[in-house]
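User: Predict the complex.
Assistant: Input components as received:
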Amino acid sequence: MSNTIDELLAGLDLPAKIELISGANFFRFAGDPSIGLAEMPVSDGPSGVRGEQWDERDPSVSLPSGTALAATWDRELLTEIGALIAAEARRKDVYAVLGPTINLHRSPLGGRHFECFSEDPLLTAEIAAAYVRSVQAHGVSACPKHYVANDSETERFTADVIASERTLRELYLYPFERSVQAGAWMIMAAYNSVNGVTMTENDLLDEPLKGEWGFDGVVVSDWTAVRSTLGAAKGNDLAMPGPWEAWGKPLEEAVRAGQVPESAIDEKVRRILRFAERVGALNGTPRQAPAFTDAAAQQLVRTAAAKAMVLASNDGTLPLNKPAGVALLGSAAAEPRFMGGGSATVIPSHTTSPLEGLSQALPVVYTPGVHLSENMLPVPLDLITDPETGTPGLDLRYLDGDTLLDQEHRTAGALMLFGNANALRAKTIELRGRLRADVAGEWRIGFAGVGTLSLTLDGEQVLEENVVPAGADPVEMLLNPPQRSVTRTLAAGQEVDMLVRMVPGGGFPAMGITCAVGRPRRSADEEFAAAVELARTSEVAVVVVGTTEQIESEGFDRTTLRLPGRQDELVAAVAAVNPRTVVVVNSGSPVEMPWRDDVAAVLLTWFPGQEFGAALADVLTGAAEPGGRLPTTWPRTIDEVPVLNTKPAADNALPYEEGIHIGYRAWLKSGVAPAYPFGHGLGYTSWELADLKVSGRTATVSVRNTGARPGRQVVQAYLSRSVSTVDRPVRWLSGFAAVEAAPGETVTATIELPQRSFEHWTDQGWTVEPGAFTLHIGTSVTDLPLTADIG
Ligand code: BGC
């Protein structure tokens, strides 16, 4: 085929080639009909396939996010998830999904921690490889990102990570190396710099990526990460989004002037054509992916979410045994986070909140107790009617002066218009609906958006403002636009005509428009007291706590590990009146839990995807095992976290001073015990490990279920060196295997130990230090009952 690619290349002149190496638009790679090359739509894809646009009329399955997927430690599950992602990609007509996100959990403050898999390179690599293999087996490209060391978000466009070659090789590059071995067709180059050079121009794209590892796919820039015309001489193949000005005419001139060799452009085009051939965009059609019915997709997401939930502690209260009454508390029970914010956001056709899911399974009474945010929510469909159709929803109009360009019936209160052709040509956008108050009280009514926005209620304009974005990051502006509101006292059943008008602004085309409402609330103290009283009088209290989009999302890092609002106070007050208090934590990354030893059970659920409530009900009632094991260490307090800083210095430098000691490696080195160690997670049964045997690079262990229920265990293997001339972690993960066993049953866990986990990086390359290693087998990094020497 390489001949054919070269022949096709030979048929393209320089401008045609340059057109191919930047996007056709925001989410499309360019095509060229003269050589049978179709345009290639792509979509973000770490935890669901959005498609080219965010549009509730074309919904996506919302999967558990990165930390949740890694918490399953389950390669087979990832293979099934990969098939679902491929099916979603085909359904949405996209050729590639921009994921998985395989940067590491270096600091728990990292804003995209939820989207990445783990603090451990081997676990990250195993999960990533299964994802890549499975998605691509169905002819859809994966795109592991962001190459490399994009492990935090503060000043993400300019941060300059300073790290040694050994640190990069052993930690941050390793998941990419394994993804390339798994056959990745595309890799995304990060925004940041490493050791002084921005990643789209960094030599790390040549070595080890394209040279030593033999990566023959496309390096695509993170969106807007291509910085210069002359940088086109370097290893980034495709500039996104496009058309990218700096790579258009100026690049043509630079090539003609001999500043950028034409051979560099040819090489990029060859890679893009090879990629197109793989995904069926070159004189062909994309391969059919497996079809998933809605029910099958929902079941898979529900199973995966339960398998990801980590039971951190349990005094025997869980699983719940037919309680007479359950107090369900916490605003996250009704308004949880199904997914993390940012480019990974998708719009599912439906979601099941903990309140909805638990109400199906248990005698639940709910009150929030606390509100996490003063923000209004997009108006819910059961409160708004489109005046044009008389059905739930809103009327969206695109206008140029008085001329109506187009009109749509929409079924969401928050509309993302980014990339929408109508929105691009409209001068004014209007969103209208008839709001019905379902309860009496003080309602907040308003909008969210950027530009000149106004609100008209019952024909009277009550607000007008030129709203400017809070920060400069377009992703944040897209997903978290500023809100403005007025307050109205409404009777139950009262209706109000609502019109939000927007003239887009802020230096961007229309990103989104939202009709927002804030329902009447009790005073904070009344609400808090009601929750504690409900807990006191119920057999069991389940408190759902979590983070918000404002504190944990793409585009910025966290500044604290504390739960927002009065959630800690609520858990403490509830635990004081009800000894059977179960806390469900809905965050993508670690949070401090000062009350963790005072409650009956703690269940960590991550951002579990659209079936959150159903999976939670399965786990709390014992219909499913909480299958997760921690892919990242949970600290007691922020002060004890050994690697924390994510803020670059004035010269942009962000030194990875800790070298190879991140995550549990750093905790073991510091000697401080975290709240819950890496690999930890309880189930509903008990286990005994025995009979460790080693043969070559394979370990086998007998695993006996000593409890009364069937269960699942993740058997983990770590290596250590008692004598070493090299700076090493105290121990490090070398392999793992998940097993299932019935009560009383003994099964064998077979763990493959990759040779690389015995090697370390030196100036001469990979090497194995002579002498014996110790192999430790157990169920977390600190619970390792079996050991053996291994050479
Ligand atoms: C993110 C990428 C994402 C891209 C396209 C960027 O801001 O860093 O992960 O794939 O946007 O949405």
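The mean pLDDT is 96.
Let me know if you want any component modeled separately.
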